[in-house]
Structure formats: structure tokens, C-alpha cells
Amino acid sequence: MKKITFSVFVVLVSLAACFLFATSIKQSTPKEVSRPENQSQERPFNPKACIKGSDNNIYLAIREAVFKLRIDENLPLYSINRARQDSKLKFPEPIDRSESEGCLANPLQVYSFQYNGIGTIYAEDYTQSALRYESEFTSLMNGKHKEKGRCEKWPVDSRFTVCHHRDTKIQAVDLHTIYQVDPSIYPTPDGRPFTIYCDDHINLENCKYTYKVGDKFVITVRLHGTGVFRAISDDVERRWTLDSLIVKNYRWASR
Length: 255
What we know:
- The chain is of the alpha+beta class.
- Among the domains are: 47-116, no CATH class; 127-215, no CATH class.
- The protein has helices spanning 2-28, 127-141, 231-245; strands at 57-62, 65-70, 80-82, 108-115, 119-122, 149-153, 160-166, 174-181, 194-200, 205-213, 217-223.
- Strand 10 and strand 11 (217-223) form a beta hairpin.
- The radius of gyration is 28 Å and the shape is elongated.
């Protein structure tokens, strides 16, 4: 009887020790704090605080261009990069600086922002990389560097010509591919050839294209997988969506 009582006592003590250990681990583990989807890294924007344009929108400015964007899952505020005060970007004087930044009368001055369905809008001119791809494409098309690759009509979409940049040491391996449409068929807004660059030619991963919209901003779009197949049709819709977000004839105080 004493043996049984002692065994039960040992079991109870072991269970109590396990419980205390688990509790201490739980208390010492920091809780994961999730950032709300529509919250800025600095402070949340409250559109109801705006005197003018107090709808559920935030107004962003890249140079003179002003965008009216609805705050929802398409625009998490932490995807917005403010323009630094020491930035070389030039912004006109807003209508009313007493309004919160992001209101219609005082658009938030930004360097870039990401919006689902469009891509990333930049203030800086990132078209230099696109020009480099275009130059490489032209060289391969003209046959100046046959050892570096070949070009052909893309079987998936004959509007594109695709150039394969080969590894000069291992000819069977493509380093990357460049897809281009003649500007007479589908040009970029600034009249250049619509050009897509892909790092992964097999799975069409890590693909992107960049073009300039007017003289105010640049758009960069990243494509993955079958997104390249729909590139032109999706870009037509993307340009329409982008145009619908721009506030037409916005009247700055200094203009």
C-alpha cells in the first residue's frame, strides 16, 4: 500500500513540474504583434480628419501628379515611401498645409508606392535598366553577338519576339530572356518598345518591365509564371486603372 501511495505521489509531482515548466515557457515567449494591414509604419492616416475630400481616400503626390487612392486591401499604407525632406524631388506648394498629410488639400509627398493591380510607381527614372535591355535585344536581333544568343518569334504570342541570352561557356543554358513587341503594335506610353526581361527563362519567374509615364513618374511591374502570357492585355487594363487614379487638373497653390 505504501508503495502504491508513493508511486502516485511521484506521478503527481511529475505532472505538476511539467505544468509549471510549460507555463513559464508560455509566459517568457513574446507575443507576435501583427501590424494592421492598413497602417503606416509611422502613424495611421485618418481620412475623416480632412476638411476637404473627407471620403475613404488618401491623396499622394509624385512631383505635380496627384493620385486619389482608396484605402483598402489594394493599398496597405506601409507600401508607401515618403519623400525625404532632403530629397531632390520638387513638389509644388500644397493648397493648405494645415490639413493632415494625405488630405486633398495637402497630398502626401512620396517617393514611391505600390498598388495592387498596377505595380510600383516611382518618382525616380528607372528606365535606364529598360534601355539596357532594349540595347541588348537590338544587338542580338542584328546578329552582332551570335555566340551570345538567338532570337525568334514567340510561339505563345507572335506579337512578341524573344531573344535568348546564352551562356557563352555552356551554349545550352540561357542566362535570361528578353521579350519585345514592336512599338508599331504596342508601344509604351513614352513611345518605346514594350520590353519584358526575365531572369528565369524556363519558369518565367522574376520577370519585369519598366516604362515612363509622361515626365512625372515611372512604373515598374513584376510578372511571374503565366503573367507573361497575359502581359499586353493586363497592361492595357493597368494603364486604364492608373489613369483613373490620377486627379485630373489638380490645382496646386503655387500653380
